[in-house]
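In this supplementary section we document a worked example of the pipeline. Step one takes a protein sequence of length 264 as its only input; no multiple sequence alignment statistics are reported here. Step two produces a three-dimensional model, which step three serialises into structure tokens for compact storage. The input and output of this example are shown verbatim.
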Amino acid sequence: MLVGVDEELLSIGQFARLGRLSVKQLRRYDELGLLRPAYVDGGTGYRYYRASQAREALSIGLLRSLDVPLAVVGEVLSGVPGALSGVREGLEAELARRRRTLASLERVMERGLPGAVVRVVREVAVRVALVRERAAGAEDVGRATSVAVARLMGAGVGGGPVRLVGLFPVDVGEVVEVAVGLVLVDGVGWEGEVAVLPGGVFACATHVGPYDQMPLTAHALLAWCAERGRVPWGPLREVYVSDPAVVAPEELVTELMVGLAEDV
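The serialised model returned by step three reads:
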């Protein structure tokens, strides 16, 4: 028996069994301030808990089983309003990503590894109003692109038919800078960034279907270049032929293009 200590205190091993946590987890949660022991022996460093703390331990276990980060677990235990809202949004985003991945996988299962008819075209240089956005990796590219398009369209740049071109790095890292350009007709100005997309020879493939399955066609386009020993230059371009506001996702037409060094 511990001298001067409540006899109802439980050793860390006993409390771990009661709270359905491991001893290692309890030590970690103590370090983080999530679940402090009721008493720590100054001489031995042994931790002791009360049975009344078991509900808190079980709650931590429940929240962790729901993929709630430890930092948010602390907020929930402290009663911070809306603490779980961000976790829910993250799970919904992950679920949407998984659904997109599943759709692409089903397409590969149905049609085999992606292939595309690739043609070589010559493009002229064009002047564009340009908006840039940063994406947190490949899975965030769609969101960043939508934001860039909304900024361009919200600016009300007129002067002719809307021609949008997405610009993406061929190699995607943890942080991706994407850009969307709106082709400017002569005489139309733009208060933001203006750039000239260089012309030249491009390998081009047509993608028909949802935007989130575009990586399959991009794979086929880059494989075509690699098979012929052609090293692409510049960003991958997506020329949006269809208007997603009036065309069904399965019928959207997009031209994917990548620059090719001209033969000397």
